[in-house]
Amino acid sequence: MLVLFVFIIPFSLPVWKPGKLAAYYKKIHLEKSGALRWEDLQNHPLPQDFADMISWKELATKVSQAYADLPDSSKNNTLLYARNYALAGAITYYGKNLPQVVSDNASFLTWMPEKYNAKNLLFVGRFIPKTDDIVFQQYERYTVLDSITTPMAREKGVKIILFQNGNSHVNNMIEQGIKKLKAEFERQ
Predict the structure, then answer these.
(1) What's CA 50's distance to the chain center, in Å?
(2) How many C-beta neighbours within 10 Å does residue 73 have?
(3) Could you give the C-alpha distances from 150 to 19, 130, 145, in angstroms and in order?
(4) Nearest to residue 54, comparing CAs of 124, 148, 151, 153?
(5) What pLDDT does residue 97 have?
(6) pLDDT value of residue 7
(7) How far is Cα of residue 78 from the mean position of the Cα atoms in its chain?
(8) Per the CB 3.0–4.6 Å rule, which of 110, 119, 126, 144 could disulfide with 77?
(9) How far from the centroid of its chain's Cα atoms is residue 13's Cα?
């Protein structure tokens, strides 16, 4: 029974660093079991649950630094927005000296405030919003500040982007959009 437990433990707990786990999984051909198949239906070096979490501290550290680097005069009117609940949760849990992280994804939507003063937007997401995304068009410019680089992390490539100088319409657009999303969420 003890031998079986020693063999199974690397499947249920990340007992080694990601590189060593990936090598172990490859050695025992774990991909044949389907345990390395993610929601994209592709096999990856690590199970999705492990890969989801290994970059969270890097993400929170980089977002915290990006926010700290903002001029004090713009911090009070900078909205910190994460594209999905995993990113928002990681930043909320591991972040340091940050304002409330908002996300319109999953249960984070219910915690979003009703009113905004978002002259600037610190955006965390995999992709730069498309030019047809009307809210992001309300900002004068954007700068990609950093990205996640942890090897084998599911969130590798997630960007930290600063949108600056939102016009007079942006806050109303955000408020109306959130109101609509909350109404749809409550109907479900």
Answers:
(1) 15
(2) 7
(3) 11, 25, 16
(4) 153
(5) 97
(6) 75
(7) 18
(8) 119
(9) 23
Residue with tokens 């997401």: 125
Give Dmax (Cα) for the chain.
Answer: 67
Give pTM, 2 decimals. Answer: 0.90
Region at 34 (left for phi over 0; alpha for psi -120 to 50; beta for the rest): left
In the chain, DSSP assigns E strands to 78-82, 101-102, 120-125, 139-147, 159-166
The pLDDT value given to residue 185: 87
66, 122 Cβ separation under 8 angstroms: yes
Q: Which residues contact 3 (CB under 8 A, 6 or more apart)?
A: none
Q: Are 92 and 57 in contact (CB under 8 A)?
A: no
> What three-state secondary structure class fits 39?
coil
Encode burial over 117-134: b for 16+ CB neighbours within 10 A, e otherwise: ebbbbbbbbeeebeeeee
